[in-house]
Structure formats: structure tokens, C-alpha cells
Amino acid sequence: MADTKTILIAEDSSVILNLTKKILELQNYKIVTAKNGREVLNQVEKQKIDAILMDLNIPIKNGMDCTREIRNHENKEIAGVPIIAVTGNANNYTMEEFKEAGINAYLPKPLDFDMLVQTVKQYVS
């Protein structure tokens, strides 16, 4: 079997975090979590992450700032990790702002779990 891919879920809502984690674990992904921007940056430094589901409204450092910081990382592997934005208020951002920050894809809340699985597979296969 191919090596298990690791997905980082950056989400401050435990309900959404646990649901998302369960669904992705059923797809045989290894899940690591972060409840705020500082934890996101610590996780990408600590281990190989294959994709990030980034809630844009996380505390300490929001998802857009985290994404920019990851994209500017000196380690090219970390800088290139696919980042999928997850937000309940995407209307606050334009697609241009997502692109400028370095976001690869976007999923609206409430999450469509079929779309979630499909999008994650698209970026980590």
C-alpha cells in the first residue's frame, strides 16, 4: 500500500474539526490538527504535511496570514504544500485575494463532505 498522506486540519471549532477528521480518517489519511495559527506553523515545521485544510478564521494568526507565511518559507517543500481554504464567510475575500495569498482551493462552510474528500484527493494523489 502507498504511504499514508498526512493532512493538517486548522480549525478552532471542535465540532467541525472532529467531523472533518473522522471523514478523512475513513479515507485512510493521517490527521494532525491545529486550533490556531501558531500551531499550524509549528506543525508544518515538525513533520511532512501533504495538504492543509485551513480555516480562515482561526485565532492568533488567521488562515490568510498563515498561508502567506507558509508560502514564504525557506524550505521549498513546506512552501509548496497544497492549502485548501475553509470558511463560512468567503464573501469577505475575492478569488484574487485567495490566489495572492497562495491558496490552492476553497471549500465553503457548511462543508460538503463529498466535495471535501474529492478536493483533498485532487491535491494529495
Automatic annotation (TrEMBL):
Domain of life: Bacteria
SMART domains membership: REC
One Pfam family linked to the record: Response_reg
4-aspartylphosphate modification, residue list: D55
Phosphoprotein keyword on record: yes
Biological process according to GO: phosphorelay signal transduction system
Keyword terms, alphabetized: Phosphoprotein, Two-component regulatory system
UniProt key word Phosphoprotein: yes
Ranges where the Response regulatory domain occurs: 6-124
Entry-linked PANTHER family: HYBRID SIGNAL TRANSDUCTION HISTIDINE KINASE J (PTHR45339)
Name of the molecule in the record: Response regulatory domain-containing protein
Biological source species: Adhaeribacter aerolatus
